[in-house]
């Protein structure tokens, strides 16, 4: 991977992970920082995650994301589009979610982004009644998969892997509230991203500017 490659990560609190938004070099303490450590000097890594974001919130600040001039743009969004239905009675349909994210990717493509990495949102039910929430998330997960095909993006599947890890080790060890990962959970996400990215053809994503 040449030194000119810029990896930009856009998403919600899982991506944000406590970064200092006043410091453009701050990566937070989650999966983005782990990826940056793994790639070392092989790329410039920029974290554009903001906690609480839904797809429409990401759209409202998309110019700022594109201003980072990504060669490879990772978009990890969707769980808050599910969550707001249940904590704020503010649902987002899967159709609206898909249309919004498609618009973001189209704008990024027009801006010259070379390759997309789309991360599948996950949720691990940890309290009574939350299993039913998956009925809202599952169509959004399917939308992310369709968008990966449509935009020839690299897909990072997470839902099944995080769920299996939570079943094996206990949700408290991986995602105590079903969404926000522990250090072990963040490592799982970073490993899944790195494994998916390793399969990207060199010419498609790693040529740099």
TrEMBL record:
This is GDSL-type esterase/lipase family protein. The lineage of its organism: Bacteria, Bacillati, Actinomycetota, Actinomycetes, Micrococcales. It comes from the Bacteria. Gene3D superfamilies: SGNH hydrolase. Residues 9-187 form the SGNH hydrolase-type esterase domain. InterPro entries: Ester_Hydrolysis_Enzymes, SGNH_hydro, SGNH_hydro_sf.
């Amino acid at each position: 991977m040449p030194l000119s490659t810029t990896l930009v990560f856009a998403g919600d609190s899982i991506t944000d992970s406590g970064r200092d938004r006043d410091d453009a070099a701050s990566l937070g303490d989650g999966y983005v920082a782990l990826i940056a450590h793994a790639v070392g000097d092989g790329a410039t890594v920029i974290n554009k995650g903001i906690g609480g974001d839904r797809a429409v919130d990401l759209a409202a600040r998309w110019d700022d994301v594109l201003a980072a001039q990504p060669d490879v743009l990772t978009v990890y969004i969707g769980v808050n589009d599910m969550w707001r239905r249940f904590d704020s009675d503010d649902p987002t349909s899967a159709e609206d979610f898909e249309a919004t994210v498609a618009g973001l990717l189209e704008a990024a493509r027009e801006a010259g982004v070379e390759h997309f990495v789309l991360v599948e949102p996950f949720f691990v039910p940890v309290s009574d009644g939350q299993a039913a929430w998956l009925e809202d998330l599952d169509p959004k997960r399917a939308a992310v998969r369709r968008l990966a095909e449509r935009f020839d993006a690299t897909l990072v599947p997470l839902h099944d892997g995080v769920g299996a890890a939570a079943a094996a080790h206990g949700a408290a060890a991986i995602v105590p509230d079903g969404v926000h990962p522990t250090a072990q959970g963040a490592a799982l996400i970073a490993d899944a991203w790195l494994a998916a990215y390793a399969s990207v053809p060199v010419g498609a994503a790693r040529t740099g500017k």
